[in-house]
Amino acid sequence: MARRAETIELAVLGLLHEGPMHGYELRKRLNLMLGWGRVLSYGSLYPALKKMLRADLIKEAVATTTPVTRRPRIVYEVTAAGHSEFERLMSEVGPTAWEDDNFDIRFAFFGRTDMEIRLRVLEGRRTRLQERLARVQSDLERTQAEVNRYAEELQRHGVESVEREVRWLSELISAERGETSPEHQASTSTSTDQ
User: Fold this and answer.
1) Helix (H) or strand (E) holding 70
2) How far apart (Å, rounded) are the C-alpha atoms in residues 32 and 16?
3) How far apart (Å, rounded) are the C-alpha atoms in residues 28 and 47?
4) Contact of 148 with 132, CB cutoff 8 Å
């Protein structure tokens, strides 16, 4: 749970760097960022916001009223301490930076990080996925005789998904280093040959 809370904190701080937002807008943007597989409920967001308020990472801005409900709408802003915490979280390059729970959120805010940090996170993620891929392929070979065709298809799909992400990460790493990816070279040579 602490990991999920830190992920939410990182995402909220990153979004509030763009400007003040109310809870509904934060939740909507976070759900877009997290993707279809991980929906953030108000029951997770508002306790995180309260904790961040107590830690002085964010503050409540001037409340506005909406024409429909006439209820005040609380708007959140990032504080100086929140800016510092965001920078600290984004500069971490250890295993939590490239794990499944954190990587997507970090990647969304890569534009605000140093190239060396981006490279270390991308390389760490790729290494972790390559380890996972080797393990899954080994499991697949050992269990092919024991599983039905649907379980085998599911395992094969998992392998292909990880292989695709490893290729994507390799392309990103090459781009960060200013190298041209092999796929880009092939498409460039094909278009110039014609």
Assistant:
1) none
2) 15
3) 16
4) no
- pLDDT at position 186 over 70: no
Q: Read off the pLDDT of each residue in 54-79 and give the average, rounded to a whole number.
A: 81
Q: Can you tell me whether residue 77 is helix, strand or coil?
A: strand
In angstroms, the CA 188 to CA 25 distance is: 42
Euclidean distance between CA atoms 95 and 103, whole angstroms = 10
The amino acid that residue 6 corresponds to is E
DSSP assignment letter at 165: H
pLDDT digits (tens, 9 = 90+) for 27-45: 888 888 776 556 677 788 8
pTM over 0.70: yes
Cβ neighbours around 106 below 10 Å, total: 26
Query: CB 114: neighbour CB atoms within 10 A?
Result: 11
Exposed e or buried b for every residue in 58-74, given b needs 16+ CB within 10 A? bbeeeeeeeeeeeeeee
Distance CA 36, CA 34 (A): 7
